[in-house]
Write a structure and sequence with these properties.
Layout (H helix, E strand, L loop, with lengths): L4 H30 L1 H14 L3 H5 L2 E4 L6 H8 L8 E3 L4 H6 L1 E6 L5 E5 L4 E12 L2 E9 H11 L2
Parallel strand pairs: 1-6
Antiparallel strand pairs: 2-3, 3-5, 4-5, 5-6
Helix pairs in contact: 2-4
Length: 155
């Protein structure tokens, strides 16, 4: 093997070409990762449209475990066609890295009629996040407690 300037230039050129070959793979993975939340919502829509509500329910995580029908979740998350109280928030760098999409909830509060196990009642939606194949609903106060808190705080 020669160790002259021609060999060094050839080695650098090979390294650059190999690196260039990796760019489409890195771009494809980045695109797949960044669009994961929207693909999850699309998957939920497709399952609901096909009447596969049990499979659609498997995409949704509730904290605490108060159940809300998958078709109502799909309706609330449809981009541009969803409920006026649930709108996609702007994504920041952390959201992109974590593969998530947060939704803004109306500042006045949004109540949903949910099954809490022993009974059904209105609970306030605290947050909605679509993250790497899962849709996460976090429930806040019951509607009655929320109204009492609002009266106490004078808002």
């Amino acid at each position: 093997m020669s160790s002259g300037p021609t060999y060094v230039r050839t080695s650098r050129l090979r390294f650059r070409l190999r690196t260039l070959l990796l760019l489409p793979l890195v771009f494809a993975f980045g695109w797949w990762w960044m669009t994961w939340p929207q693909r999850t919502i699309d998957q939920l829509d497709a399952l609901v449209a096909a009447g596969k509500l049990d499979q659609a329910a498997n995409l949704i995580v509730f904290e605490p475990d108060y159940r809300y029908p998958p078709d109502k979740v799909a309706q609330a998350l449809r981009h541009g066609r969803g409920q006026p109280h649930t709108a996609p928030a702007n994504r920041n760098l952390i959201d992109l890295v974590l593969g998530r999409r947060r939704f803004e909830i109306d500042k006045k509060g949004v109540a949903a009629f949910v099954n809490t196990g022993e009974k059904s009642q209105h609970m306030m939606i605290e947050s909605v996040t679509v993250e790497r194949g899962r849709i996460k609903y976090r429930w806040g106060l019951s509607m009655n407690d929320f109204e009492q808190e609002r009266i106490r705080s004078g808002k």
